[in-house]
Design brief:
2 strands; DNA-3mA_glycosylase; DNA-3-methyladenine glycosylase activity; DNA_glycosylase; Endonuclease III, domain 1; globular; hydrolase; 53% helix; 9 helices; 186 residues; mainly alpha; two-stranded parallel ribbon; single chain
Amino acid sequence: MGHGDCTWPVSDIERKYHDNEWGAELHDDRKLFEFLILDTFQAGLSWKTILNKRENFRKAFDGFDPERISEYDDLKLEELMQDTGIIRNRLKIQGAVKNAKAYLKAVEEFGSFDSYIWSFVGNKSIVSSINGPEDYRATCPESDAMSKDMKKRGFAFCGSTICYAFMQAAGLVNDHLNTCAYKNRK
């Protein structure tokens, strides 16, 4: 099956991501953490850039293991700053460590990151009515609330726009075009 009618996936890697992940409801804590870290690095860049470096990020960040990332020291941060396979931005690398620590606290408090993050949408995906590119938005009240709460809990790079992109990636929001073959996927 092709990428349906959604117009944004133009490269092979984007089509594969669209067809297999984007907008599908995600409840796996480790995968949610991966998207959180990838969205940290995506800030100000294209998602295609991140997708092209995803395997490099996976290797550099110990398979997105939040416990290991939360313990990164200055030596590891310097090692990451030298890794040409990832986005070498010191603030974003430090943000990933900060997010790992905040993630672990959220898991401890809520039992799972899934329980925490899906609470912002009442545990049910928001299905947007998208007829064309003009209907896309960058934030919503739920991403505003998520951003505010995540900042309070010590997360970094979690503005409402980044939260909304995370929500799209993890299926908390389904922004496929109404005519897309993947609109009704769970």
